[in-house]
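Worked example (supplementary).
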Amino acid sequence: MKIAVCIKRVPDTETRIRIAADGVSADEAGVKFILNPYDEFAVEEALQRKEKAGAGEVVVIALGPDAAQETMRTALAMGADRGVLLRADAIPADVLAVAKALAAELKDGGYDLVLFGKIAADDCAQAVGPMTAELLGLPCVTAVSKLELDGGKGVAHREIEGGVEVVEFALPAVLTADKGLNTPRYPALKGIMAAKKKPVEVKPVTFAAPRLRVAALEMPPARKEGRIVGEGPDAVPELVRLLREEAKVL
Amino acid sequence: MDDSLFFREEHLEVREMVRDLARNEIAPIARAADASGEFPWPTVAKMAELGLLGIPWPEELGGTGMDYISYIIAVHELAKVDASHGITVSAHTTLGTSPIVDFGTPAQRAKYLPLLAGGKVLGGFGLTEPGAGSDAGGTATMAEDKGDHYLLNGSKIFITHAGVGEIFVCTARTTPGTTGRGITSFIVKKENVEKAKAVAVGFGHDDSITWTKGVRAGKKEDKMGWRASDTRELFFQDAVVPKEDVLGPVGEGFVQFLKTLDSGRIGVAALSLGIAEGAYDEAVKYAGQRKQFGRYIGAFQGISFALADLATEIEAGKLLTYQAAWLKQNGKPHKIEAAKAKLYCSELAMRATINAVQVHGGYGYTTDYPVERMMRDAKVCEIGEGTSEIQRLVIARSILGDVVGGG
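After joint prediction of all chains, the assembly is encoded as:
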């Protein structure tokens, strides 16, 4: 089974983000970058599928600057076989451009399965996976929380509002991984050592003129301090009044 | 401390992995393990699976193939969250495994290192005796030469892993006397007293080991701290140790364990540093959450200056510890640097945890916050693997030599 996992280098979700002087990007100084948490589920799923099949290859593909290789090492330390870095100075805001670059790399790769995380922790676009599938002409199932594969077919569960949707599809296919799909492993120390020797191919990519650009980046407004309106049942009328008149939620 | 001083990319990856493991798997169980004093088999098994029990040893010996600095990073990171898990790795690696790596014959290495460095069973080191603590030359356990084997009689006290471990390096006297001369090291094996739990997690017991007749673990010590670490007496009653299990030349045991302890001190320094940093992190967090007199308590100089001092001292402790580790890794003399790192960091752990409890006020005195556990865990760092007094003696002798005297 040959599986590609498309991964992204994102700021640690616990990092406090500052906006850079240009006003349209995040200041990267002192920021720790990690493998996008949803991509960890995708990597783990690929590894489990390969282990179950008893043979195959797991290739991790990232698009981004040279530093994305460090992120790739995490996936390689978990057990992926090799990496491909589509080298670009910055990741374009135009997600279709990213999808096109990935699709070009994936097209002739002979992959049975292409996995993504369902959402990137930084831009939250949730678009690159489905767009790539479309460009490759492959079926796509997003937010997969359970997966069964049998020969050339698969069944995926998607957690939707208030229920579960069960989807059948034919391989090859593109899937995006949700929480619950598996428990990502920690990279064992031997894996970390082995990852140093695994091949990473670096291929420069160029993009067509961007069709959209980030105009501004703003921090969410500071949350106002909470207010205690009273205690016990006596406070209820006042609370209801405030919710109705001030917060206007009732 | 800037990462680039001592760390390469793989060191940062090790740190990241151990940090995640500590935070996600160990922190949630640390308080319960401290309260019950039970050995945390599932998390120790997880550490074994990930290779944390054989970090600095080459792959040919069954180890992970990483270096000494990686090992120190792991102990440091574990201790930030739970000192018991830190000492489990440290005692197993430097005390239990390193004597066999350093002094074992090819046959002994081939036999025991895949089990120890490969993370199959836990190891330990039997040096301290009821009557021989800092004065290890006072070892009274006797080893009588019986031709093809030695007969050991005596006991060892405060032995980490004495109950849950299976392979031990122990010292005994092959020549009567009260000095370091005439002490020899032996490899002894006894079955894990918690075998059923070990088998259930798939780590900690190996049926292929031939047990040394006449070796037995005592009851578990009820300790102030490090409560999730297994500490017991080890008894030898006409214990039959075949000559193939003598470790290194007869009579060289004293010289060997001095070397083992030199390195062990760097591990305890890292562990102490971890406790100090863990407590400091908790104090910083709390100082930014707790309000009194209408302000965060961190806004008061009484709190903020204490934290500023700790931040500075932790920085100094890191430099001492990682420098000692770097010296050891590069095959340079490190006895004095290890003693300085251990002395400074263990006393820092005590100061840091006392201050962290103080920052937390009454809450810090309860088990709702981890700082009281850290304070109890810190104390033994000033005692185990050479007391602070012994560290000062080692350092003083290096400065003043004969003036201080050897006795």
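Two points are worth noting when inspecting this output. Chain B is about 50% helix and 15% strand. Chain B has three domains: 3-116, 123-252, 256-405.
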